[in-house]
Amino acid sequence: MVELRKRREAPSDAPQPPQKKSTSSANESDPSKAATPPTDGAEAKQKPVVGDILSLDGFGGEVETHDGETTNLKKLLDESKSGVVLFTYPKASTPGCTTQACLFRDEFSLLTATGYSIFGLSSDSPKSNTTFKTKQKLPYTLLCDPSATLIAAIGMRKAPKGTVRGIFVVSKAGRVEAMEPGGPAATVEVVRRLVKSSGVQSGGKVGNVIETKDTPDEGDKGETTFASEDDTAEVQADVAAEVADTAEKLDGV
């Protein structure tokens, strides 16, 4: 008698490990987990506005003077009598920047009458700024900020890489008194207004400033001093500065 044996069943396939979820698909479904592009810390911060009180420790990082000395805004304020004026310019020795620097040179005595310390600020190298200062006989220090940390901190950085022409004034206590872009003549006018608002009057002509004696009434024979030649020269200088600044912008400087 033949014995029938039961055939063994084929072993079932081994269980497969569970598949891991794709990280990319998970991020696509959840916008909050999407990658965030890197940002420039200085650019991300809000620009200061007039009336703000700056936290000066570390503000704007460190910069160099044209003669190679390392400094920062806090140190400049500590060394000033009443505050710091920073006028920014795109590139040393270009027409618009030369006009701007010379306007601050010509009115230096008046603009510093209340104790302001004036500085030019750009991303130029110390060598370029030293040449600029020497050639134009500038009576103030030029600050060199190649990494544009201070330029960005005061809101004068131009994307992707550049400097906006403008003016930034901060009191010794760290209060922002002026912050705005502008042409060569306009940046000087901002400081001039601040000085005059402090009650300072020139005892004579300082740079291109014209002194006048106000008359009480239109019909009164009060004395008024005019300097027509200087007046014409100042107007011509302002017009030339604006033309040069416009040409500089068109050239992409």
Describe this structure in words.
This protein has 253 residues and is of the alpha/beta class. It has nine helices and seven strands. It has helices at 23-29, 41-44, 73-79, 95-106, 108-111, 126-136, 149-153, 184-197, 228-250, and strands at residues 63-65, 70-71, 83-88, 116-122, 141-144, 166-171, 176-181. α4 (95-106) packs parallel to α8 (184-197) and α4 packs antiparallel against α9 (228-250). The chain is elongated.
Architecture blueprint of SSEs:
Blueprint: H1 23-29, H2 41-44, E1 63-65, E2 70-71, H3 73-79, E3 83-88, H4 95-106, H5 108-111, E4 116-122, H6 126-136, E5 141-144, H7 149-153, E6 166-171, E7 176-181, H8 184-197, H9 228-250
Parallel strand pairs: 3-4, 4-5
Antiparallel strand pairs: 1-2, 1-5, 3-6, 6-7
Helix pairs in contact: 4-8, 4-9
Overview features:
single chain; 253 residues; alpha/beta; seven-stranded mixed β-sheet; 9 helices; 13% strand; elongated
> Main β-sheet, in a few words?
7 strands, mixed
Mean pLDDT: 78
Query: Stretches where pLDDT falls below 50 for ≥5 residues?
Result: 23-29, 31-44, 203-233
Q: Give the strand content.
A: 5-15%
Contiguous helical run count = 9
Q: What structural class do you assign from the helix and strand content?
A: alpha/beta
